[in-house]
Design a protein that fits this description.
By secondary structure, the protein is of the alpha+beta class. It has one domain: Archaeosine Trna-guanine Transglycosylase, Chain: A, domain 4. The chain contains four helices and six strands; from the N terminus they run βαββββααβα. Strands 1, 2, 3, 4, 5 and 6 form a six-stranded mixed sheet that branches. The relative contact order is 0.23.
Length: 133
């Protein structure tokens, strides 16, 4: 499998805690596949990039976000109901669907087409060391 870097500038603590287990990216950003090793990189403008953990991609799914809602290919592009949309937004690190859609609109514009990359629980240097004990 291939090794890929995913860079983050928000939600560092949520990535580390395992609360954030997915990320949405534009279609042309990168080609990630299930089984790929993901190096999660924290990027701050005033610091060197930092590897915050390594994990494995479990699923890459096409996503569409527009004024009608959130859809993913694995769900036959049906608009998520309110509960599913909220759960999706939270898995991506946001507090609400409104925050998630607002972020997508501000950074990519609507309608948006891209991918959602899912991963296994994060493996940090600490968890790798604990596994070796």
């Amino acid at each position: 499998m291939t090794e890929r870097e995913l860079k983050f500038s928000i939600f560092r603590d949520k990535v580390l805690s395992g609360e954030k287990t997915q990320t949405v990216r534009g279609m042309n950003k990168m080609q990630v596949g299930s089984g790929d090793t993901l190096n999660l990189i924290w990027v701050e403008s005033s610091r060197e990039p930092e590897l915050i953990g390594t994990t494995v991609c479990t699923l890459v799914d096409a996503i569409a976000v527009d004024y009608q809602g959130i859809r993913v290919m694995s769900q036959a592009y049906k608009v998520f109901d309110e509960e599913a949309a909220q759960a999706f937004a939270q898995a991506d690190g946001f507090g609400s669907t409104k925050e998630f859609v607002g972020f997508i609109e501000a950074n990519y514009g609507l309608p948006f087409r891209g991918v959602v990359i899912h991963w296994e629980p994060l493996r940090t240097e600490e968890t790798v060391a604990n596994d070796a004990d």
